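Contributing new records

If you add data, match the layout below exactly. Sequence lines come first and carry their own label; structure lines follow with theirs. Keep one chain per record. Anything else will be rejected by the validation script.
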Amino acid sequence: MSGLPVVAAAEVATPAPPASRQSPVSVAPVSVTVRDLTKRFPIRRGWLRALLHPFSTDLVTSVDSVSFEVHRGEFFGLLGPNGAGKTTLLKMLATLITPDAGSAEVEGIDVAGDPAQARRLVAPVIASERSLYWRLSARENLELFAHLWNVPRPLVASRVEEVLEVVDLRHTGDKMVGQFSSGMMQRLLIARALLAEPRVLLLDEPTRSLDPISARAFRRFLRDELAVRRQCAVVIATHSAEEAFDLCDRVAVLDRGRLLSVGVAAELARDLAGDRYVVWTTQPRHPALQSLAVAADRGEAAPVALRVMDGWTPVEIQLFGGPDEAAGILQRLVAQGVPVAALERVPVSLASLIESVVRRDDSERGPR
């Protein structure tokens, strides 16, 4: 099997979440409550339309009656493509934008009714390196923002050292921020947010500028430090299905401002998109392999050969019984003489997930 291609785990493998990753929904108090939150923005008009209709206003709905709850110590993902309304939702929770309808509460504080108090509890982390002062050191940046956030003067030095230690930047705290890598800047943004000791963190695409290895390490740091140690409620906006299902306890799927579905991350991926696996074999047209799609008569799509490498062909199949069914399929293929080098799980894509939700909703509504 020397010709077997090596497939990176980050590309095809999506490990099942351990027991510690179960959502704390049933035991932890509610930290964030969103009820029918709606936001519309005026559409920029051309000069001719503005001249003909000077008093009319065209609006586009960015967030459309969205409702959910987030519990303390929980990672809650807002998953959707660009333009789904994720960032607008975060900005409303951070009191940067006023909602047009609905309500949002953070630890019982209405973000629209008492924004000053809400800002003491919420820290937004926008993935924008321009918000840091590049000609200052990391320590000087944090000292500056500590004063802006009214951290008591006697506590500034100790608080800065504490958050630098938390994000593993203490030994580079005197380095100018302009010399930082993207990963170091992301950590510094988290450290800046932690200065205020928030109860809720809002993360907007926190790993979009990181390579896959750095992104995985950064997600591990976020979970261990924010959710486990500090018991913060974390709302993360992302368009990466892998990131949402790898990091979050629960995921809300958004599309064009509407909340399509919300649920436990692993269950949502399995229920909506099923479990897709790739079987590496030298006999992709073996009858036992070709009959997999129709054997259970559950409407799975037929296996599709993806590409051939050194004689080994990855064939994609659709399963709905999770790892137990995958183990049984592997045993059956081997027993029937199918040469199998590997059986690997394929992560669900955002596009297929949204399509599955839309199809499910259409089928539940029935014919119009």
